[in-house]
Amino acid sequence: MKSMKKVLLSLLIAASMGAVSSTAFAELDKGRIAYSPSDAVDMTMEKIKIALDAITSGTEGDKVAELIKDALDANKEINANDKVDVARARVAGKLKNARVHAKQEALQEAEQELRDAYKGYGELKKMF
Question: What tens digit of pLDDT does each residue of 73-96 get?
Fold first, then answer.
């Protein structure tokens, strides 16, 4: 009887772990949109282009910093593999530097960082 209780308890624990496993529920949240890696890169590059256009049209630094923040947020959607993630993080550093420059009203430096980031995302797309 004692061994039967132990076996049933073990089975119950194993079944409950399988039922509540995070892998079993690995799906998107309602309302969340999943992008393919190439679509996410395209979206990020579009947002960088918008920030570059804002700099060339004479927009002030704080607004440019907000546009760069949008590109950084879009950047987080790029998810392919570890190699791509390392390269993505490296290029995202250029976006962060551009945002710092934009906040300091150093728009020429921000523009150069954005151009480098744009090229970096173009290279990133070739890794898929």
Answer: 999 988 888 899 999 999 999 999
pLDDT of 55 strictly over 90? yes
Angle between helices 61-75 and 37-56 (to 10 degrees): 170
Tokens of 45: 């590059």
User: What token pair was written down for 92?
Assistant: 């995202």
In this structure, are residues 87 and 128 in contact, taking their beta carbons and an 8 Å threshold?
no
pTM confidence score: 0.74
Q: Domain ranges for the chain, please list them.
A: 29-125
Alpha-carbon span 79 to 40, nearest angstrom: 8
User: DSSP alpha helices (H): ranges in 1-128?
Assistant: 2-19, 37-56, 61-75, 82-103, 107-125
- DSSP-assigned letter for residue 27: S
Per-residue pLDDT, 94: 95
| CATH top-level class of 29-125 | mainly alpha
